[in-house]
Design brief:
single chain, 5-stranded antiparallel β-sheet, globular, Exported alkaline phosphatase, PhoX
Length: about 625
Amino acid sequence: MKSKKRLLALAGLAISMTTVSPVFAATDKPSSVQSIEFVGMDAPQTAEEMAKAYSTASVKVTFHDGSSKLYPLSYNTLFKSTDKVGGVTAGVAVDVYGKPIMDTSVPGQPTPFVSDDPDANGLIQFKDGKDRNSLYLLTNYEYITRDNSGKSAYGMIPASISLTTLKQDEKTGQLSPVELKKVDFSGVNGLWIPCNGSVTPWNTELTSEEYEPDARAFEANPSNTYVAYFTKNYFQDASKQGNPYMYGFIPEISVTKDGKTTVVKHYSMGRFSHELAKVMPDNKTVYFGDDGSNTMLFMYVADKPKDLSSGTLYAAKWQQTSDQNGGSANLKWIKLGHATDNEIATYINRNIKFSDIFETAEMDTPGFTKIKTYPSGNVEWLKVKPGMEKAAAFLEPRRYGAMLGATYEFNKMEGVTLNAKDKKLYVAMSYVEKDMLKSTAQDGLQDDIQLPKISSGVTYALSLAGGQKDNKQDKIDSQYVATDMSGFVVGEDMAAADDKGNTAAVDKVANPDNLSYSEELRTLFIGEDSGKHTNNFVWAYNVDTKKLSRILSLPAGSEATGLQFNGDVNGFTYILSNLQHPGDFETKIPDPLKQEIEKRINQNFDNKRSGVVGYISGLPSMQDLMQGNKTGKDDNK
């Protein structure tokens, strides 16, 4: 979310170019198709362009006979978060009973809380008897920016996820919403700040709970976190205080063919600031984004494929080899522990507290380890109480991992996606700042990462391999263990703002967040959450040619969310991409341009109260290309 950067300070309270790509592998490439190119679009120039979501990019397919076809891209709105679909407001916040939570901040004008912040998309498909797909779309509503009085409502109002039944036009592929309902989280005590997510190989969605509340701060005073406010609003019970250890996990949502949903939280996957979870091709190894300052790179290896209810959690050690191009390092893995969901749920259900797990000191003290991690961001001296290692490993994996020597200096670790053919994992680091820089303090704290500042951020590539061992020289039961990490797509900061307010190079990615990858197109898609670009963009980056194409521009002040490439949906191809909090400016747009943009955004997005759920269409059908069909428009360039 775009306001993440400033919200990190409240952690204690929660706290035009062308891409050429081979279409298919050499073994299955049809003889008629030579290459595919993303033909990018210019950055927006006028107030009208800067206040809307649009694409003027295209895809060019070149055939071996020398002819080529152009496929113009366009952005399509499925619905706004304030729209009603089948009688249900898409972004409405609901309580434990499934009823709308009311905003009473303006006396005499109670209205339901409605989110302006749609995030993750998960497209769930089922084959039916007519050889068509039944389509469902899961959409996260990350938070609610403000109440009707204008005060921040972040973290205080329970979040939600909707399940939308989609209709697909058989000839054009156009998608339209038919029915929408809210996913029931009452069995897992509600949903805490769901950010990004992914669809598993077994057709469920792994969503997320980001910015886990600080259990130490809560125990000292519940009002130091959002937990008590969240709990009262969700359960509609002013007497409830809540428990921070209920939140900060990966929920898995299963959808049946007839549109029924069930939810479980995977406590054995660890409690931290989950951006998302991405499953590897073995159906058991999982990597995560851990958003915030002083965070960690975690890996989970399940005991059984397609079953995330028990497994082993690891944290990475960065062993730096270079500080160039965003930095490079070898990765070693520290085993935190093994657990089942039920084991960790037992701790939570007995209302475990921070002081049940750790002893604390206030200065360097024998037997205590000095660390600095999210969510507190403070220097702490900790010792695990006897017999509480498992609780520490899964309820406080960052604090426990830091005590064992794992690297806790990552900053704004966001999206994760997989290039299966090359066995590469891509991880977005939105801002290479803070403790990712070389420390000049003589404070005795760990300083594994020592990089030059890149406020525009870096997307990293990680190599995956089998036969690896952990810090105790025990074999890691996975063929997808990350062995090294290096800068792959690097942003460029500018010394001064341009005439649109941009402080990062406008033709390069700034502050990468959402990531998705197309095996067919050999293309990494990158969505921005930038405080350095006035308009955030979605990019297509070819992993072979290293060429970059801007394919979508979003209204000023909004973030690109819900990015998901879908290459075969009844023969059609879509790039799902949402936008949230339009008009929430972070750059300094000069007047009078700012006033004109703001006026148009208010007109287009219900006075900044509407986010948008949508998709990019117009991409060539992978099915048609495999069959050698020359669809599209003739390219006369």
